[in-house]
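Lecture notes, unit on protein representations.

Consider one protein chain, 302 amino acids long.
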Amino acid sequence: MLLPLLAFLLGTAIVGAAAFALMPSRAVAIDRRLEELTSSRTRDDGDEPKTRFEALVGIVKRVGEKAPRSPKELGNLRLRLVQAGYRRDEALPVFFGMRILFAVLLFALAATPLVMKPNIMLGLLGLALGYVLPGMVLARLAKRRAHRIQLSLADALDLMVVSVEAGLGLDQAIQRVGQELAFAYPDLADELRLVNLELRAGKARAEALRNVADRTGVDDLGSLVTMLIQTDKFGTSVAQSLRVYSETLRTKRRQRAEEAAAKTGVKMVFPLVFCIFPSIWVVTIGPAAIKFIKVMVPLANK
């Protein structure tokens, strides 16, 4: 009777010891579970749309790679893409692909009976519009980004003046300002981060500063870069130069605001004439005109 009981106990002990030895630790089990939850959540929420978007971008990129390109146009277009904030290598073929697909789409909508009566002339007009419109949108995006950088430049200069006067060098001040402005002004902070990376890679400070002026296309930033290069060349005080330029920049920004306020009256003429005055005329003269017609039409028929 004791032999089966001892065999059962021995087998249970062996199985329990093996299970305990093969069981992962608590930390490993928690990490594995968190990884499973994170991967499943990412797969459920973001992977499928991201995969579809990447597939669509890949199709547009392949179309753009087959498009004919003008060497004269490539330099200006690449510079415009960089000024708009698109620096990756595939930005250029994606732009060409979007231009071609958009032009073909507008031509198909106008020249085929999908939406309206087919019209070849309207299709050709849509083809030309689809080819030109992406460039206009890109120019608008670059202009908006340059405007955001221009508005953030005064605050960045004030912070740079404080950093330089506190004892930091110009390179360290640029790095510090880029870190501090990352939340408020991400465009300018990204450009300053690129300047810091170029300096770490071994580029000369003058070249790195000229590159940031070319990437943004902001005239005030170009003037600041010229001032910093001259200050570095002649050995004058960087803090004093930054303070003077900061005051000048704030004066220019106030003058731009005054100029925009002075133009408001002229710009309001067209909405007033074409939108507001007709409504006022309908409300004020409409009832009198209706009554006049009711009285004069019977008299005219007699």
